[in-house]
Structures are given as structure tokens and as C-alpha cells.
Design brief:
By secondary structure, this protein is of the alpha/beta class. The chain has eleven helices and 18 strands. The strands form three sheets. It has an eleven-stranded mixed sheet, with helices on one face. Helix 5 crosses helix 6 and helix 6 crosses helix 7.
Length: 411
């Protein structure tokens, strides 16, 4: 009886694994209908996360967690065997004016983005991730800088003192949480304008890391996917100093447009070609291409009618101050679908063959037209297959907790 029971359990496991493989194949590779029912979409949203499959991608797989989505830390623990690196977005590097008669006196502080609560730095979680074999690379983001302040940081005659202070604070923080390196995030700052003094500062920062931290560490640089911000010449210049470049390739619409796909695959290929990375053989695993797990929702009637941008968030608004675009997570999409079903409103789900993304179109009970561009197994798989073709590229995910749980099966 015991042997029969074991055979039965083995049979159930094999059935489960076979079902997962078949569903992944169908959703990722089959010809997806141009329209799907709301019930089908809800079933996809509520598909369970699976952790029993071996890691498929053999290069770098880096994921981000953020203070505003602290549930991402729990997701990271669940999918740890799919990851090589995890980057908590925990720290800001911010300019601070010092009260004095001279209003130009200032200093730069390295501070937690969130100082308390679930989204704050968590040393136990760092240890837990490391015990699962994942390297923890916290993000230090330049936050709240003006162009004048940034120029002073790199070119002012006192910039060496300020840079030394920032380096010391970064090293102290990394040593305190016992992490495996750090990532500098520049946001929309054009690195092209400052790459020579930046490179010199990076060398001094790395020297301090080697001097005071005995644990092996990696240095990563997060850059904006725009050749006018980060050119191929700058890439080549900084490459010897950087363990990995991290490129967030999902803001195609950027601040200029309020409607459109998140990351058209042709746009991604063009950017990678600008840096000569598609066919490159001498830059193994040097660039992490970050894919979006979240989607974006748009008010369709303001497709290209952006009057201004929200002061705090930078989101586009129309002439009446109403948001034209906002991010949407997996759980929010599921709620949207259920609300649409319960209200009886029409909803379509279409594959855009040009952009290689899905778009959901629906109307609110008030009759306002909406469009949602949201990642799927099919769209993510297309991008992952593109990344796999180049040994120079790794996979990044922004951000854990924002996508559908079954997305991780592709990794």
C-alpha cells in the first residue's frame, strides 16, 4: 500500500508539471486570439505561482523591490531560486541646503527612501536572501537634484570634499547591511554630460569599498535608455569600471507622450544596437535589460493631448488637471476585469503585432474610454528570447509584487 501511495503521489506531481509546461507553451508560443473573454483574462490573472520548475535562463536575473510595494520582499523569497541578484530600492542620495547666511551652502545626504515600516532597509531580509544564494545589491538613487546642483557635485572646486562624504556614507551603509555591492541610479540625468568626472568618482568609491569592505562586491550603474543621455562612447568609457549596466527598457512613451506601448520590441532592439550589444561577444553578461511587470492605463480621449505634468509624480495631465496615464499592477488589473464583468461593460483584449504587446480596451460606467497596455507571458517571452540571443545581456524585472505571479515561470 505504501508503494502504491508513492506511485500515486508521483503520478499527481507529473500531471501537475505537465499541465504547467503545456500552459506555458500555449500562452507563450501559440497564436493568441485577437480577443479573449473577460473570464479567460481573470483566470490568467489568478493563475498560481509555481516554484517547482528549474531556472531556465542561465545569465544574470536581477529583480527590484521597492518601498512602495513591500510585498515584493516576500515574493523575492518565494522565487529566489529564479534569481541571481535582488536590488532593493532603499536609499536616496539627496542634496540638502545647510541653514546659513550663505544660501549656496549645501551638503549631500545618503538616507533611506523610507525610514520605517515594511519598505525600510531590512538586514534580516538581506541575510535571508543571501542564504538562498541571491546577491543583494541595494540601489542608491540620485533624488531631487537640479542641474545646477549636479554640475556642482562634479565640477565645483569643493566637489572632491562632497564626493568623499557621499562615498563614506555609501560604504558605511553597505558595510552595515552586509550587502554584495551597490547600484547607482541616475534616473533621467544625462550621463553624457558628466561621464569623465563620474568615472573618476567611481574609481575613488570603488577604492573605498575595497579598503573597508572585505566581502566581495559588485558595482552596477543604472542608466536611462536614451543615446542622448548615455551614448555608446560613454558606455565604452565606463565599462571597465562597472560590473553591470542596468537599463530600464520600458518607458517608451516617456514624458512626451501619454498613450502607447510600454516597450515596443523594435524600440528595444534599436537601443541595444546603438550600444552594439545584440551581436557582441566580448562583453559577457555586462548589461541587464529591465522588463516591466506592471502595465499602464490611459484615458484614450487624451491620447496625445498632454497639457502639463503632475509636479510630484511627473504623470501627464490634461488641460483640466486630470491624469491621462497611470501605472497598473496585476492585482489592480484583476479588479478592473472583475468590475468590468460585474457591470456588464464590453472589454476587448488584443495582441498588437507591431509592438508585440497586449492592449485591453474598455469603457468606464461613465462612458469614458480606457486603454491598458499590460505584459503577458507572450510579450515577456518575446523579449526574453531576444535577450537570450546575446551573451552580453541579462534579465531585469521591475518590480516584484507588481506583476502576475505566473510571470516568474518564464525565468
Amino acid at each position: 500500500l505504501k508503494l502504491q501511495f508513492l506511485y500515486f503521489i508521483g503520478y499527481l506531481i507529473m500531471v501537475r508539471i505537465t499541465a504547467i509546461i503545456v500552459s506555458l507553451f500555449i500562452l507563450s508560443n501559440a497564436k493568441v486570439p485577437k480577443e479573449q473573454t473577460t473570464d479567460q483574462l481573470i483566470d490568467m490573472c489568478e493563475a498560481e505561482i509555481t516554484h517547482d520548475l528549474e531556472r531556465k535562463f542561465k545569465g544574470t536575473t536581477l529583480a527590484f523591490v521597492t518601498p512602495w510595494r513591500p510585498e515584493g520582499k516576500e515574493v523575492a523569497l518565494k522565487v529566489a531560486k529564479k534569481l541571481t541578484h535582488i536590488s532593493p530600492f532603499w536609499y536616496h542620495i539627496s542634496p540638502k541646503l545647510i541653514p546659513s547666511e550663505d544660501t549656496t551652502t549645501w551638503e549631500v545626504k545618503v538616507e533611506p527612501a523610507v525610514s520605517t515600516g515594511a519598505g525600510s532597509p531590512d538586514k534580516k531580509w538581506v541575510t535571508d536572501m543571501q542564504e538562498k544564494g541571491v546577491k543583494v545589491i541595494p540601489v542608491f538613487a540620485f533624488y531631487g537634484w537640479t542641474k545646477v546642483q549636479l554640475a556642482k557635485f562634479f565640477t565645483d572646486k569643493k566637489s572632491g570634499t562632497v564626493q568623499h562624504s557621499v562615498s563614506r556614507q555609501i560604504v558605511t551603509t553597505c558595510k552595515d547591511i552586509n550587502c554584495d555591492g551597490l547600484m547607482l541610479d541616475w534616473g533621467l540625468v544625462p550621463i553624457n554630460d558628466y561621464y569623465e568626472p563620474l568615472n573618476a568618482w567611481i574609481q575613488r568609491l570603488l577604492g573605498s569599498m575595497r579598503k573597508f569592505i572585505t566581502r566581495p562586491h559588485q558595482f552596477m550603474l543604472s542608466v536611462h535608455p536614451d543615446p542622448t543621455h548615455f551614448s555608446n562612447a560613454v558606455f565604452e568609457s565606463l565599462a571597465p569600471s562597472v560590473s553591470k549596466f542596468v537599463v530600464h527598457m520600458y518607458n517608451f512613451t516617456g514624458p512626451a507622450l501619454s498613450h502607447g506601448p510600454n516597450a515596443p520590441i523594435s524600440w528595444m532592439k534599436d537601443l541595444l544596437n546603438d550600444w552594439h550589444l545584440i551581436d557582441r561577444k566580448d562583453a559577457n553578461d555586462l548589461v541587464v535589460v529591465v522588463l516591466n511587470l506592471f502595465g499602464r492605463e490611459y484615458r484614450s480621449e487624451f491620447a496625445l493631448d498632454v497639457d502639463s505634468y503632475d509636479v510630484e509624480t511627473g504623470d501627464p495631465t490634461d488641460d483640466q488637471g486630470r491624469l491621462s496615464r497611470w501605472d497598473i499592477t496585476g492585482s489592480q488589473l484583476n479588479k478592473l476585469l472583475k468590475d468590468s464583468k460585474n457591470s456588464g461593460s464590453e472589454l476587448s483584449h488584443e495582441w498588437d503585432p507591431t509592438y508585440k504587446e497586449f492592449i485591453i480596451k474598455y469603457a468606464t460606467p461613465q462612458g469614458e474610454q480606457r486603454a491598458v497596455y499590460y505584459p503577458s507571458l507572450r510579450s515577456l517571452n518575446r523579449r526574453i528570447e531576444m535577450i537570450k540571443k546575446s551573451p552580453a545581456l541579462g534579465i531585469g524585472l521591475w518590480e516584484l509584487g507588481s506583476g502576475q505571479e505566473y510571470f516568474y515561470d518564464l525565468l
